[in-house]
Write a structure and sequence with these properties.
With about 325 residues, the chain is of the alpha/beta class. Helix content is about 30%, strand content about 20%. The radius of gyration is 18 Å and the shape is globular.
Length: about 325
């Protein structure tokens, strides 16, 4: 099985000496958003049960500053809903792309037609290294810094996607954003930057799905548009998935000396005036135990738990609301 993943990345690309497959995407950020690289990756064997979820067979259509016109036309006119994926901590470029492929196939396997999507990934310059005691902070701090610095690039990525997503929605398709773990740290920087740069409201996504977010739990407190407080101006509805048993976020809380959004949801999440149910969904995944709940696995329930997937695709397949 081969899965197509369209992508944008703010990793600097090393040109290959020969074959396209030899492209490498390193951990250096480009100076300008217009120097970002866009392209298409083809992923083999996106297995639905393995922790290693496939391998990149080839990379094509590389282009600076945006997708090629052919890809823009294909995405705008495609027959599937669109899923935009932002990966988390300790994901190198191949991890980011293969997990995007996994998510596409994992959701499609639910047999919910709306969850059979075209996937577009954003890959920021994570080192791709796990937290390894006794020095847990180095790789984490690197990733957190580069995720935050990626906000302006992710904002540019959204700006390039906006006409594509608008064209797809005009054809009756739905658009989804899935941000996992530290991808939410990059997301908050992009959302804040979007409005700080004078951009207005834009209905990019029908649903924003925030899974195991390694972002401060007060993120929605920074009105009018700080951190994630203005995400509802870019997404029609927001689902926040959290777990009290997320061991990775427990460690992240200690490193940051601050509770994480993915541990118990946002500050004052029970306040329906602040978080009206028509706009915000709070999904407690603490009791999901239908997967291997080890240290790393406790943070990966969104892509390992059938119960979590059932909720995710249920949102994707729900009727469009006013």
């Amino acid at each position: 099985m081969t899965t197509t993943v369209y992508f944008g990345t703010n990793r600097v690309v090393n040109q290959p000496p020969t074959a396209v497959a030899n492209y490498t995407f390193n951990i250096i950020l480009p100076t300008r958003p217009q120097d970002m690289t866009y392209g298409t990756a083809f992923v083999d064997s996106a297995g639905l049960t393995a922790d290693t979820v496939g391998a990149i067979r080839s990379i094509q259509d590389l282009n600076k500053g945006g997708f090629t016109q052919e890809i823009i036309d294909d995405l705008s006119a495609g027959g599937r809903n669109i899923l935009v994926f932002i990966h988390g901590f300790a994901n190198d470029f191949e991890n980011a792309i293969t997990r995007a492929a996994f998510n596409r196939e994992w959701f499609a396997a639910s047999n919910v037609p709306a969850a059979d999507t075209t996937v577009i990934a954003f890959s920021w310059p994570s080192r791709g290294q796990l937290i390894i005691p006794p020095f847990p902070s180095f790789s984490y701090r690197w990733d957190q810094t580069t995720a935050g610095q990626s906000g302006v690039h992710l904002m540019a990525f959204f700006a390039n996607l906006l006409p594509i997503l608008t064209a797809a929605r005009d054809k009756g398709l739905r658009t989804f954003l899935l941000a996992h773990s530290m991808g939410n740290w990059a997301l908050q920087a992009a959302v804040e930057g979007w409005f700080a740069h004078g951009n207005g409201d834009a209905l990019m996504f029908d649903e924003a799905l925030l899974a195991a977010a390694d972002e401060v739990y007060t993120s929605f407190d920074f009105l009018p548009f700080g951190r994630l407080s203005a995400l509802s101006r870019l997404a029609r509805r927001i689902s926040i998935y959290y777990s009290h048993g997320d061991l990775v976020l427990d460690l992240a809380q200690g490193l940051n000396v601050a509770q994480r959004l993915g541990q118990d949801g946002p500050d004052d999440r029970a306040d329906l005036n602040r978080f009206p149910p028509a706009t915000y969904r709070m999904v407690d995944c603490t009791t999901f135990r239908d997967y291997n709940v080890d240290f790393q696995g406790s943070h990966q329930y969104y892509r390992r738990s059938v119960l979590a997937r059932t909720d995710l695709v249920g949102v994707m397949g729900a009727p469009v609301f006013a």
